[in-house]
Amino acid sequence: MSQQSAIPFEREALDSVLKRRFFFAPAFEIYGGVSGLYDYGPPGCALQANIVDTWRKHFILEEDMLEVDCTMLTPYEVLKTSGHVDKFADWMCRDLKTGEIFRADHLVEEVIEARLKGNKEARGIIEEAAEEDAEKKKRKKKVKEIKAVKLEDSVVEEYETILAKMDGFSGKELGDLMLKYAIGNPATGEPLEQPKEFNLMFETAIGPSGALKGYLRPETAQGQFLNFSKLLDFNNERMPFASASIGKSFRNEISPRSGLLRVREFLMAEIEHFVDPQDKSHASFHEVKDVTLRFLAKDVQSAGKTDIIETTVGKAVASGMVDNETLGYFLARISLFLIKIGVDPARMRFRQHMDNEMAHYATDCWDAELQTSYGWIECVGCADRSAYDLSVHAARTKEKLVVRQPLETPLTVTRFEAEIEKKKFGPKFRKSAPLVEQWLVSRTECELEELAKEMAANGKIVFKVEGIEEDVELDTSFVVIEQKTRTEHIREFTPNVIEPSFGLGRIMYSIFEHSFWRRPEDKDRAVLSLPPLVAPTKVLLVPLSNSPELQAVTKKVSAILKKAVIPFKIDDSSASIGKRYSRNDELGTPFGITIDFESVGDFSVTLRERDSTKQVRGSVEDIVAAIKEVTYNGATWEEGTKNLKAFETKVEEE
Amino acid sequence: MSQQSAIPFEREALDSVLKRRFFFAPAFEIYGGVSGLYDYGPPGCALQANIVDTWRKHFILEEDMLEVDCTMLTPYEVLKTSGHVDKFADWMCRDLKTGEIFRADHLVEEVIEARLKGNKEARGIIEEAAEEDAEKKKRKKKVKEIKAVKLEDSVVEEYETILAKMDGFSGKELGDLMLKYAIGNPATGEPLEQPKEFNLMFETAIGPSGALKGYLRPETAQGQFLNFSKLLDFNNERMPFASASIGKSFRNEISPRSGLLRVREFLMAEIEHFVDPQDKSHASFHEVKDVTLRFLAKDVQSAGKTDIIETTVGKAVASGMVDNETLGYFLARISLFLIKIGVDPARMRFRQHMDNEMAHYATDCWDAELQTSYGWIECVGCADRSAYDLSVHAARTKEKLVVRQPLETPLTVTRFEAEIEKKKFGPKFRKSAPLVEQWLVSRTECELEELAKEMAANGKIVFKVEGIEEDVELDTSFVVIEQKTRTEHIREFTPNVIEPSFGLGRIMYSIFEHSFWRRPEDKDRAVLSLPPLVAPTKVLLVPLSNSPELQAVTKKVSAILKKAVIPFKIDDSSASIGKRYSRNDELGTPFGITIDFESVGDFSVTLRERDSTKQVRGSVEDIVAAIKEVTYNGATWEEGTKNLKAFETKVEEE
Questions:
Q1: Is residue B574 part of a domain?
Q2: A363 to chain B nearest CA, in Å?
Q3: B72 contacts in A (CB within 8 Å)?
């Protein structure tokens, strides 16, 4: 589409259209706004609803997933168990004089980058407009000016090493870096307080006593895990199966930026696919194995490169680059979905998490990243989370979250087990006895093996239990840990979870960028080439004039469109036809129906296609049928209108 | 449908089906649950999605409303202005010994009712199982036993007066009643702390500093009001128009009860119809004027009665019972919507708010109430809120939230105006000067007239301004308030708002009750007669056996249903056909397709209708077409299947 790239992309031009057409706007704007909170206006809201609807059909309906709708309010205990209370945090540091708060890692990175840039300027090295990644570009605001100061070679090297390791620093380390390199408030140069951990969840109290601490969920996943047993039952105990959920999640960003890309309240769509850890094949894998994706593998990144491997999902799984069929299946399905709703495949890649980036329990993880003017944006995560989530909730609640399958032939199994002398625990540990017992029964096979070795070596085991201050010491009179051999008739296992997780706001913004262009003949005429399927409104009805005859036809056509449940708008303003169409090009409306005086006689109308501005003419019935074909049945404009007459007009230039 | 009412309704039987089929369940159940929070399982979630979809089509699409999606997180200032910070509260009282917390009004009412009941028992008066209203029945748990104690006649009279005035008591008055009548903790008899106000909004802090106080919205309306000017602009300045929003709202109930009827997180759908205060006619009123509704008018209630007036909306508006056409239009549309999604019209009424029940600014307000085993439940509110919301936000933010219309003929207007001597305010009031000025400019016409009178009488005006401790005193050297006459070319007005507001969870629960029945031949066979349009799943595919030939046909039929985007499930378990159908009757699935050995030969199948268990036979194509007709195009079973052959079978009894 060379026409569409004739005028270079400018973010300001897009932002101006999105604002003018009320796709979205800062929430509470008349009150001065609250950063990181946005309201969607009618076209944004309709686009979002259509994307959600497409998602529901593409994933839930097509694959028979079990959709659930769980509460956003979540009690402390659940998120303590999931790890969010302890780990869902960023490091912040405060300027005690001005009260300003900075996100520590972003600040250090930004200041160091600015200094490196200043060094290059001082040395007279001209920076190429290198592709920068999203995270960096977004944060450009704190450091207002780059000073051309030359740095020692050794310092440059140190700085570059720091940047490379940026994602791995602890709060203490960030604080040390700030001291060592005199990184303070960029505006004043004043030193800042040492970094403190800031939990990103919104906290609240549930109920009148204030005693039940709760949070707004940071993801929709936990509700799905907690309902696992009910879902398995609903699915008649069959495995594998997937649950899914669409809903708002919350993240109390330290300093939100970049419009819809980093916000405090956002719509997510998440799938939890529960699978047998011993069999991660997928029954429909053959349907997607030939889908070609652009992969950025972890070993490529570890080598400091960003080379893309373009290959089919089938080959990617066969070669072991993608861990298993189910994961591969979802990568392909994610790609098909994103393309369906308007993502440019050339600006989509699947980036694998590097080993140090992944949670310790994860087996493999890929992000669908979309390229925008902010860089490559993580829009969909697709992780194999192993049995982590179900295991921790089961351990905490003592509810079994497992699958039980009858074995065709009984199995003889040898396994480490801890046999607890319960009677002795009460007298020794009193109130804490259940904690110690619980600790023992929640050990994994591996941990038990280690404990057995320790016991054999020292005659006792020593360990820490959360909630008990002193070390716990047990000898064999309290617990015997040894291998036992049993015959099992039932196989009981905790399913693994493969989790495709969609950030719909980020996807939506990327689609805006991917579908935005301006007509070469007039750069003020912007177009959003949203696919008809997700476009907020499908048709603009344009009567040529405001005469009563045309009004009557407009009314009749409206009734037909309403009956066909095709979202449309009427523009009977006095603006020229060209102006009216151009307004709706900005809204991404794919079709226009012009009602003219000929329409009064034979009830024929003209249909205009947004991107090409081509027009065809036919009876209202045929035109509506064509709109339906192209919008909902995947036909191209050419296919959908092949029986209609081409129509020449000059109104576009008016 | 006498068959459907042959076995009397039992709430326990319905609850058991809803739980067993995972329509919904207590959230965080494996953690012990949190009262007032529920998760929707797959059928509940699908039913909810279908109701939302129907709502969107019925209201937004059909009437071209402007849908917005605003944030749930809301800063303090917005809800302070709207009145929620000060008034969205209940009275609670605490038992200082046990820590228990009671909602004061519910407690007083409940204890007094129990005493009156005990009195009747003591006097040997047999209580008839009178219809009780929902609020009462729900709260029955606190008072565990009724003691047969005779009361003095005078006390009975006092008690009855108290009950009649129950909704109007202040916290102080409730506290006095508790002291006077020795109302304490029903379990122990111990006295309680005096009632304290408990705000029902969930509070949180936005951003890292903790300084920006926020709440979870208690309704979706505020976001719509705040975006009024953008919406008016989007609508090309045309009036009237409506915005709409579907989303979660929150209410931190003191003690939630009654399943889905009183919860802490719930889905709402709200419309804000902005209308010229001088013209509340509605362009489509003629389309609904003949719709008959069951009205419970305010004067009937004031007279202590509940007689229903059954009449058309046209007559209700003409007689003045319903204040205006737009309000009447929405009452009719609400009724049509509720019936479409499965509400029993005989168990629906529109109850008008009594004058002392309505907010001071409201012109008229009607609730669509649905009758359930908990009594009559308020499910949709429909209020004419006058210009209140836009006015208060405009006054607070100094942003004009008005419509400006050119006048065809200029108008001469005489109005009270306050002319402020700005220069004198600074020296006298210092920092508080803007507060005083703001107070003056936000007075209404009426208030200005009063102030003018006060000034004329006393030579000064004295008033209180929020944020200033002392009274403010001004004489004519500071402000002149008098009538001015001007010629206006533009009419500027603040629109009035008519607000239909739907509690979707309550509606859903009512539909469960309205559609639940048990087959007379076997009361364990329960049916949810949900309309096909909103039923979670439309079709159950039932292969007669698990043979490969039938599996192949099942696969083909599945593909056809998928292509037609008809939500279906396959049940190829080994249970009998009868059992499989009966399981799906409980899920409200309206159709079943049986695949038998004849299907292998001629690709014909049997279609079963859930309520009548009638069956017809035909080709898969014809059967799918019939399903589409009945489900999405409003055809009855008879109309949809008129070209299909009736089919007799005995499988139901298996």
A1: yes
A2: 27
A3: 72, 248, 265
